[in-house]
Structures are given as structure tokens and as C-alpha cells.
Specification:
mainly alpha
Length: 94
């Protein structure tokens, strides 16, 4: 499973467990840009640590509670594939 999607699902569960009607309500009440939150929840971006701290603080939990406790086997590094837009931009610069 994609770790970005797993993180987003964990945040969604926590928001629902705290009784927020929607993620938009949560974002508005805690001054978190809803576009940013949406991208994190859908696994589309690599969330900044500061944003994760803000989300965890708003939920009243520790940041580590947003992450799976499963041990990852082997030499594993979390990488996000580059976007086609960035690849095209690099070609134009060369």
C-alpha cells in the first residue's frame, strides 16, 4: 500500500473519530488550507512536517499516531515519482 495514501486514510479516520461532519469543517476550524488537506488525504503530496504537526495538534494526538506501526522490511526509502510536468520542464532547460 502507498504510504501517502495510508497516511491520508489515517488522518481521515482521526477526523471522523473526533466528530467533524466533514474534512472541510475540520480544515476551516483549524485554519488549514482545505486544498492542502485534500491533497494530503488523497495521497497526492508529500506533507510538510509542520503541517502534520498542525493536523495532529488540532486532533489532540501525537504525530506518530498518524503513522502505521507496521515495521517495514529491508532497505526501504519513501520516494515519490516525479511528475510529468517537472520532467518536461527539465528537458526544456537542458
Amino acid at each position: 500500500m502507498d504510504p501517502y495514501i495510508t497516511l491520508g486514510q489515517a488522518i481521515k479516520r482521526q477526523i471522523a473519530a473526533k466528530g467533524y461532519a466533514t474534512v472541510e469543517v475540520f480544515a476551516h476550524e483549524h485554519s488549514i488550507p482545505k486544498g492542502t488537506l485534500s491533497k494530503i488525504l488523497n495521497g497526492k503530496v508529500d506533507a510538510k512536517v509542520s503541517t502534520l504537526f498542525r493536523i495532529a495538534f488540532a486532533l489532540g494526538i501525537a504525530v506518530q499516531d498518524l503513522f502505521s506501526s507496521q515495521v517495514v522490511q529491508g532497505n526501504w526509502v519513501m520516494e515519490r515519482p516525479s511528475s510529468p510536468y517537472k520532467a518536461a520542464r527539465k528537458k526544456r532547460r537542458a
